[in-house]
């Protein structure tokens, strides 16, 4: 099962990198969203996969009866999902504002902070 | 989007969702659920209400600015960690109190306070982003 | 054992002994900024109260960090694990001399920025949340310096990043949106790389505690194996991106000149140094074998960064972009220390980080004052500032000397140490690059001083006459909030230049702590380490 998931992660990374190489900001953001998911799956797989045993301890016990799934990667992935989700939301708003203000979503045309015909400083002393 | 059916149902739907989100928040200690997922449900309730009745009425309904709510959540989340200072234990060590109300034992704890903090942070932060996006859509 | 009810031996997993109240200083910096930040967030509308609250909490933060440093020097490395769990189960906060020193200097700089912000951030900026975001940024910065858990380090990076987004778009100008897009996208990719490497590391060792990782890596038969080399390369790329090292430095000059100048000052002082700190922590403490394996690559990157930074600074006429390139040149010096990796070199890198935090913030604040005096950040439109304030011209000269690494100011000593360490290691090219970069920086800063201060007026006016451009002096220049921060920072620059013993001692102690991490391990795991 792990091999299959690893191939899937590879596919996710491929798609993410392809999208991030695009010039359109929206595609880059989609690429980042997919990259986040690829990373989450990577962490999840790194915690070793088990089937259908949630890491919950029954009420009257202090220890799980059988080997359960590793809860730590789930906690890590949850943290990473929360973070990447909020970042994605923020960047989406930012990209939308940038599109409204700058009138383009192509990154090559966003040259306000670094104007193309930038003059050189005074020469000599 | 703003059909009469949707606008009539949305307030009830949002109220139910907020109620459900609190249920999910409170059962989170020992069972699936918790502050984050509860907060997301509540934030989507605000978003639905906003789509149906306009952002202005959502802002009126929640009284405080969403970022203020998030700030309050952060504040009580941090405070929940400090309680263990007075017992000489490390930061974030959980403290439990068992209250008896009419013979029913109610366990209260700092993880619960922390979870409520998380809930408020998520409601505030996601809610403010959702409302900002909805506001832009209309103009 | 499985299924046995009730009788559970908690002491196997939990620390049941009482914790001295002084150990709470470990979490105090993050806690103070978190509480202060959330309080300011709730009171955002009250624009008069904001600066008082913000500066008050930042002053408290400086005090807490000072107490923490004193305690670390008295008791050695101190550690606290969240929720009473025993390491490596719980998230550990572990402070050594390195973390405590950087945390203290960082908080002093933030306090200065907070004071300057009282004058330069208007009510709109305050309502948008300058002080809450500044405090939360410091939560991230201090947390990153203090944590002993690598996933937790990732979380603090993200805390720092999200608040820096908030600060970056404070005014919502077009130019800010443009800068924020580039800054935001590239930094997010950088942290994702960090997360990938951390995931792989967890897959290999099953732990995230830095001390535990350091032990487990050291116990390997072949610590420079292929898998670890992948992880190390990913970490290097991720932190190099954060620190704006050469081929991945382009986001910095594209964004650092766009926000309010006080925000730029905080960013230039702190953000890239957190990347360098993480690089030292991961490469020197956890993966020393991989660092040795990659030393040549790191040295090459360091040389390229040193030269790009200095040459870039020579080619700019916008002051803030020029200083942005100087930040990059400084990162090159610190990378040189990591590339050599001896105790001496790492101590040089730490001292340089301290110097760079102070001097870069001071330079951006100085740029802000120059803008107040003459209404421009452009070298071609500046001039005649010496006539307006001779004292400020002197202060700027001090800062220029310091950033170029000339004696007797704070930049001199770390550069001496780094060059010495590079030559001792047989990397003459690296030492030469540091010197050449310092020389080019001297040229760039000398030109700024001559054009902005020494000549009579801006371009196009007859020299020698006091027809300096009509300043946008709105009375801010007379306020203490403008002059106090740069005064404090310049005093520190001079102090560390004339009395370097104290900081040398601290940085040597910090470097010894990561190169020979016995004390670090012992603090986390108790006596057996």
TrEMBL record, chain A:
Recorded superkingdom: Bacteria
Nuclease as UniProt keyword: no
Q: Mitochondrion: is it a keyword of this entry?
A: no
**Chief location of this protein within or outside the cell:** membrane
List residues traversing the bilayer.
Answer: 6-21, 28-45, 75-96
The membrane topology noted for this protein in its Swiss-Prot or TrEMBL record is:
Multi-pass membrane protein
Q: Which UniProt keywords apply?
A: Cell membrane, Membrane, Transmembrane, Transmembrane helix
| One Pfam family this sequence matches | Oxidored_q2
Compartments (UniProt record) = Cell membrane
The similarity comment for this entry is:
Belongs to the CPA3 antiporters (TC 2.A.63) subunit C family.
Q: What is this protein called?
A: Na+/H+ antiporter subunit C
The organism encoding this protein is: Roseibium sediminicola
Phylogenetic lineage: Bacteria, Pseudomonadati, Pseudomonadota, Alphaproteobacteria, Hyphomicrobiales
From TrEMBL, chain B:
Q: Which residues form the Na+/H+ antiporter MnhB subunit-related protein domain?
A: 5-126
* UniProt KW keywords: Cell membrane, Membrane, Transmembrane, Transmembrane helix
Q: Which organism is it from?
A: Roseibium sediminicola
Membrane topology per the record? Multi-pass membrane protein
What protein name applies here? Answer: Na+/H+ antiporter subunit B
Checking InterPro entries in the record gives: CPA3_antiporter_subunitB, MnhB
- Family indicated by similarity: Belongs to the CPA3 antiporters (TC 2.A.63) subunit B family.
Q: What is its main location?
A: membrane
The regions listed as transmembrane in this protein's record are 12-29, 35-56, 68-86, 106-133
Where is the protein found, in the record's own terms?
Cell membrane
From TrEMBL, chain C:
Q: What residue intervals traverse the membrane?
A: 24-43, 55-78, 90-116, 128-147, 153-171, 183-205, 225-249, 261-287, 293-315, 322-344, 350-369, 390-409, 429-454, 475-498
Q: Where in the cell is it found?
A: Cell membrane; Membrane
Q: Which domain of life is it from?
A: Bacteria
Please state the protein's primary subcellular location.
Answer: membrane
Q: Which UniProt keywords apply?
A: Cell membrane, Membrane, Transmembrane, Transmembrane helix
Which InterPro entries does the protein's record reference? CPA3_Na-H_Antiporter_D, NADH_UbQ_OxRdtase, ND/Mrp_TM
Q: Which parts of the sequence belong to the NADH:quinone oxidoreductase/Mrp antiporter transmembrane domain?
A: 149-441
Membrane topology of the entry: Multi-pass membrane protein
- Similarity section: Belongs to the CPA3 antiporters (TC 2.A.63) subunit D family.
Quote the NCBIfam families the UniProt record gives: PRK12663.1
Q: What is this protein called?
A: Na+/H+ antiporter subunit D
Source organism: Roseibium sediminicola
């Amino acid at each position: 099962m792990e091999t299959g998931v690893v191939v899937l992660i590879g596919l996710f990374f491929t798609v993410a990198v392809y999208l991030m190489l695009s010039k359109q900001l929206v595609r880059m953001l989609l690429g980042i969203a997919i990259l986040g998911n690829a990373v989450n799956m990577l962490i999840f797989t790194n915690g070793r996969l088990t089937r259908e045993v949630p890491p919950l301890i029954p009420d009257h016990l202090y220890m799980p009866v059988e080997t359960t799934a590793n809860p730590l990667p789930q906690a890590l992935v949850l943290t990473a999902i929360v973070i990447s989700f909020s970042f994605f939301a923020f960047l989406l708003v930012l990209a939308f504002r940038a599109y409204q203000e700058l009138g383009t979503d192509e990154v090559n045309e966003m040259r306000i902070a670094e104007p193309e015909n930038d003059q050189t400083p005074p020469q000599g002393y | 989007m703003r059909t009469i059916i949707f606008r009539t149902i949305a307030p009830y739907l949002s109220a139910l969702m907020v109620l459900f989100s609190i249920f999910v928040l409170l059962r989170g200690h020992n069972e699936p659920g918790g502050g984050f997922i509860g907060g997301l449900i509540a934030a989507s309730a605000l978003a639905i209400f906003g789509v149906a009745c306009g952002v202005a009425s959502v802002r009126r309904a929640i009284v405080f600015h969403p970022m203020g709510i998030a700030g309050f959540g952060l504040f009580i989340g941090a405070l929940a960690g400090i309680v263990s200072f007075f017992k000489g234990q490390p930061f974030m060590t959980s403290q439990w109190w068992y209250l008896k109300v009419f013979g029913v034992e109610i366990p209260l704890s700092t993880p619960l306070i922390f979870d409520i903090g998380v809930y408020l942070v998520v409601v505030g932060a996601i809610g403010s982003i959702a409302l900002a996006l909805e506001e832009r859509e209309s103009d | 054992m499985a299924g046995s009810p009730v009788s559970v031996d908690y002491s196997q997993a939990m620390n049941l002994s009482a914790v001295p109240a002084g150990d709470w200083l470990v979490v105090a910096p993050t806690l103070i900024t978190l509480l202060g930040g959330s309080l300011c967030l709730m009171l955002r509308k009250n624009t008069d109260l904001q600066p008082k609250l913000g500066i008050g909490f930042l002053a408290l933060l400086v005090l807490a960090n000072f107490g923490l440093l004193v305690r670390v020097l008295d008791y050695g490395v101190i550690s606290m694990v969240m929720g009473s769990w025993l390491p490596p189960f719980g998230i550990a906060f572990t402070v050594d001399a390195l973390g405590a020193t950087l945390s203290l200097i960082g908080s002093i700089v933030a306090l200065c920025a907070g004071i300057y912000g009282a004058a330069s951030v208007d009510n709109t900026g305050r309502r948008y949340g300058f002080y809450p975001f500044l405090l939360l940024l410091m939560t991230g910065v201090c947390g990153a310096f203090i944590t002993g858990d690598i996933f937790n380090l990732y979380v603090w990076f993200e805390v720092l990043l999200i608040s820096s987004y908030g600060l970056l778009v404070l005014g919502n100008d077009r130019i800010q949106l443009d800068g924020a897009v580039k800054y935001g996208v590239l930094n997010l990719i950088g942290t994702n790389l960090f997360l990938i490497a951390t995931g792989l590391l967890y897959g290999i060792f099953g732990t995230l505690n830095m001390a535990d990782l350091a032990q487990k890596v050291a116990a390997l038969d072949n610590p420079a194996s292929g898998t670890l080399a992948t992880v190390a390369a990913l970490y290097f790329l991720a932190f190099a991106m954060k620190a704006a090292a050469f081929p991945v430095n382009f986001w910095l000059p594209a964004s650092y000149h766009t926000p309010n100048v006080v925000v730029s000052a905080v960013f230039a002082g702190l953000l890239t140094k957190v990347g360098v700190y993480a690089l030292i922590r991961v490469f020197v403490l956890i993966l020393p074998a991989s660092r040795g394996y990659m030393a040549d690559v790191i040295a090459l990157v360091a040389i390229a960064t040193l030269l790009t930074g200095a040459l870039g600074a020579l080619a700019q006429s916008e002051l803030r972009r020029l200083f942005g390139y100087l930040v990059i040149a400084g990162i090159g010096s610190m990378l040189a220390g990591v590339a050599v990796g001896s105790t001496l070199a790492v101590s040089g890198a730490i001292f340089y980080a301290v110097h760079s935090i102070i001097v870069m913030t001071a330079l951006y604040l100085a740029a802000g004052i120059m803008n107040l005096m003459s209404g421009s950040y452009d070298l071609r439109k500046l001039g005649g500032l010496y006539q307006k304030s001779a004292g400020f011209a002197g202060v700027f000269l001090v800062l220029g000397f310091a950033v170029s690494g000339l004696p007797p100011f704070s930049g001199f000593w770390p550069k001496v140490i780094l060059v010495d360490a590079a030559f001792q290691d047989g990397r003459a090219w690296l030492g030469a690059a540091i010197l050449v970069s310092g020389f080019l920086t001297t040229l760039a800063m000398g030109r700024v001083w001559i054009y902005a201060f020494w000549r009579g007026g801006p371009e196009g006016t007859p020299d020698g006459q006091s027809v300096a451009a009509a300043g946008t002096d709105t009375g801010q220049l007379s306020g203490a909030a403008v002059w106090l921060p740069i005064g404090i920072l310049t005093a520190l620059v001079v102090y560390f230049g004339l009395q370097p013993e104290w900081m040398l001692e601290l940085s040597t102690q910090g470097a010894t702590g990561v190169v020979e991490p016995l004390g670090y391990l012992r603090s986390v795991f108790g006596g057996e380490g």
